[in-house]
């Protein structure tokens, strides 16, 4: 049941992404490179959170779809740039060659730039087309802040600076709050804004998103130690090899596993306030904690 | 007289850029890297065009300032990424070491990403703060389109693909229309929108901007052949060494010089319609054609 609903939502989002990337312009190779990474098998977690949060507060998911797609474009750009030789130098992502392995480094940089820019283009068009301009702008502000220097990019810089260094719990938390947590939170909050939620509801869902964002990252670190390469589609133990501090290296494996459980329980407790409507998000929250890839 | 007015405008813009980049957050090195390239001696041509176009149509330049600054952030990000080893591999820009020479490649990629993202953050904040939200969104749409896959990034990809190849006049023009022309045009058009211009006026200024954008790029190619390295702050003949097609290689030097004159004259004829108010932009247009750096 949950699987079917999730699959339907992913298909809905993939259709949206497909339409937005069905661009007939030159140079073709740029659009190929953009599409390659967007359709390289992502789990669509952020856009699913975005439309589900919109639906949870009683909104129409069609209003949130362009926002959800823009978030996925921005997320994909960040993966392309993270994988570059000058950054994590990864050859595989989701079991496929990374963008720069297929298109070369220069085009990978530009395809990433183009996806970031296109995310904002989609949001601005949506705002100009809509009667609901103010909500779209507020959602865009959340996303822009989460993606930028105060969010994802700041976290990525801290990650770079932390290589081969022992970092404190506080620094580790700062890094992941920014690098992964911020955009996950923005996905949930932007969805709630698009659904017309009031400030109190937005605050609740923002707290919910903080819990799942942190749980998601800790789970990622656990999978890097315990995961199955064939399921993950990437090399395990890469954090260790790259000299990266992770929740597992700082807290230990057992404490990390407990933390995922605690954070997931806290997240679900917040969803209790929303009654039956929150069944899907509750299942998704558990699915995120239990995933093996 | 023109020099004094230009200097005053540049100072006005630099103050705006300074305030927007006066950010007290971690990680400091990211903000240092962003500031380094923004304050590495740019001519501020695009933001000057933006506020001047706003003033020309009777607007208040304070309304256009955040838009002008966002354009300069986006322009600066494009320079940082263009200079990367995987792209043009330039060590010097405006007589100073390029961003990746100072901060390393990874941080240069991220500082560029951060400036692109921050440009949109500034625009969105401005739209949310302002009574004039619709105009800011329209200006933002122009900028986003000009900076993205259909504009600057598309042009840069064509540039990459053209290395060590003979390209046609048409391909050369496509490349520069997109790579340089689009953002120059967006600067003028966005300024006019912020000044409250009607559609007919915007169309006129858009034509004006097309002429100066093309003249600007041809002049750039001429300077790469005839320029003085100490004034340019970069190596000349780099296009030739990189096997790049330029207006000089395609049209020859004499024809290129004539083209700059013709395009400049056409641009100034459009400004004639605006009477005395257009004196500054006329001088700026001549200054762009006569510049030696």
From TrEMBL, chains A, B:
Q: Which reaction does it catalyse?
A: isopentenyl diphosphate + (2E)-geranyl diphosphate = (2E,6E)-farnesyl diphosphate + diphosphate
Q: What is a biological process (GO) this protein takes part in?
A: terpenoid biosynthetic process
GO cellular component terms, alphabetically, are: cytoplasm
Stored Gene3D superfamilies: Farnesyl Diphosphate Synthase
E.C. no? 2.5.1.10
**One GO molecular-function entry:** metal ion binding
Q: Determine the domain of life of the protein's source.
A: Bacteria
The record's similarity note reads: Belongs to the FPP/GGPP synthase family.
What protein am I looking at?
A: Farnesyl diphosphate synthase
